[in-house]
Amino acid sequence: MTTSLRRGNSSPWIWGTNMRKLALLLSTVCLLQARTVQPIFGGFNSGASNLQTTGVSYEAIIPFNNQSTIGTAANSYVVWPSTGAFMGCSAISINQDPGAGASWTFAIYIEGSTTSVAITITHSNYTAPVALCTGYAPITAGQRVAVQVTPSSSPAPVATHYTSCWIFSPAKDGETVEFGGVQAGGAPSGTTYMYIGFDGGGATTQDKGRFVAPSSGSIYNLYAYGTAALGAGNQMVYTLQYGSGAAAPTNSSLTTTISGGSQVSNQDTTHTVTVTAGDNMDMVFVTSGSGLPNPYSNSVSFVFLPNTYGQFWILGEGLNQSLATQTNYGQLLGRPLIDNTEAHWQFFSSVPFTAQAVYCWWSTDPGSGKSYDVYFNSANATPSAVHVNVPHTTAPFVVSTTGQSVAVAANALISSKFVPNSSPTAQTTASVSYLGYIPPTGKFLGMF
What's the whole-number mean pLDDT along residues 245-270? Predict the structure, then answer.
């Protein structure tokens, strides 16, 4: 039997019942909105010390933090700039068998507390990334987050490197998080350009800190954090610098200052910087004063809201080894070292995504008749369709390739590949940015 919605053909009771059903349907639709997620890459695969095998230690959620030798959460924290939750299928990979009866446990650690987003790797499951799809760890903008690493005590595991992929879902649809840091070393001084995408030191030259926006949108919610107060009369001023195309970046309105004998963090949640794909940026902090803390670590984070929800940035910059005579590989996120062994630099995403574009900022002309090819390398799609040729032209310059795509399978190993053509001029400073995309899915309002 078919019941018409035309009131003249039905009884008042039937009319009322159908209207109530329609209202319920419409209210359900109104409760649905798009959920976006972002893979947060972390850990370190080469060129760093192994995890410590005794006692609890802490790593930054940023790639290549390696604060395990310092051992405190304070030295590894990043202030998270977006409200949301760590959830979905996060995963950890290690490169050494822990040994029979031994294990590692990695957990998201927020403001002094472990969370249910915790992954244990053992002798029986270490050969592939180990995933957790049921944990849930809400976080509020302004809270600090790190990764707690707990080795088994008896027996202790074999020392190892690790890589990670944590899944973050923002409360405000589309928001993504970018961050960078400088590891503990000497006392801070002068002007330093921070590598955005990972934590492994800073640069005194602006060119080594530049990165290119692979999509358009807005940057806001800048947070800065240090491991100790700077001391009376001392300060650090953090500023996002922005340049059109390949032009040298200059100060934007997004800035915050940490100063004095008690302050360890600060933020700018007022200003917004509009970003255009293909423009370049850097994050600079300027230190002034005397008697500054030693050792000292610091980090920054900010929100990027893309115009197309579901997009996220994969940023790399600051090469400090020459590209010229051989095919080289590098990790996708900010690491300044490269070599000819791909396994040293491979990360993975615990969820599938699509790589959609590549942008390069290049500081040196490769030379007449010479060039470099830069590839997004995915183990499930080699050679990658996401590729750009860096040609002979006046430097510095930005080149890009858009409209290409490669589907990256969950847990597929990914890296950057650099191929020199016809012995080009050695390149010591460059940045490579990729655009990732995960289609938004439905969620109910009020989930967070």
Answer: 96
Got the DSSP string for 50-110?
Answer: PPPSSS-EEE-SSBT---TTT--GGGT-EE--S-EEEES-EEEEESS---TT-EEEEEEEE
Neighbours of 4 (CB within 10 A): 11
Q: Which of 149, 174, 199 is the last residue of a domain?
A: 174
Cβ count near 47 (within 10 Å): 16
CA-to-CA distance for 351 and 252, rounded, in angstroms? 34
Per the CB < 8 A criterion, the answer to whether 353 and 202 are in contact is: no
Do 139 and 202 share a domain, yes or no? no
pLDDT one-digit tens code per residue, 422-442: 999 888 788 889 999 999 987
Distance CA(329)–CA(375), nearest Å, equals: 10
Distance of CA 255 to the CA centre of its chain: 20
Whether 397 and 420 share a structural domain: yes
CB 157 within 8 Å of CB 151: yes
Q: Are residues 95 and 66 in the same domain?
A: yes
Residue 338 domain boundaries: 314-437
Mean pLDDT of 31-38: 72
Residue 283 belongs to domain with CATH number: 2.60.120
Residues 257 and 350 in one domain: no
Asked if pLDDT for residue 32 goes beyond 80, the answer is no
Q: Are residues 89 and 54 in the same domain?
A: yes
Q: Tell me the three state secondary structure of residue 9.
A: helix
Q: Is there a single domain that holds both residue 156 and residue 235?
A: no
Residues sharing a CB contact under 8 Å with residue 268, sequence separation 6 or more, in sequence order: 221, 222, 254, 255, 256
Count structural domains, the chain.
Answer: 3
Q: Does any domain span residue 23?
A: no
Distance (Å, rounded) from C-alpha 215 to C-alpha 349?
Answer: 20
Phi-psi group of 125: left, alpha or beta (phi > 0 → left; psi -120 to 50 → alpha; rest → beta): alpha
Using CA atoms, how far apart are residues 99 and 16, in angstroms rounded to an integer? 68
CB 442 within 8 A of CB 32: yes
For residue 21, the 8-state DSSP code is H
Residue 407 shares a structural domain with residue 362 = yes
Helix (H, G, I), strand (E, B) or coil at 16: helix
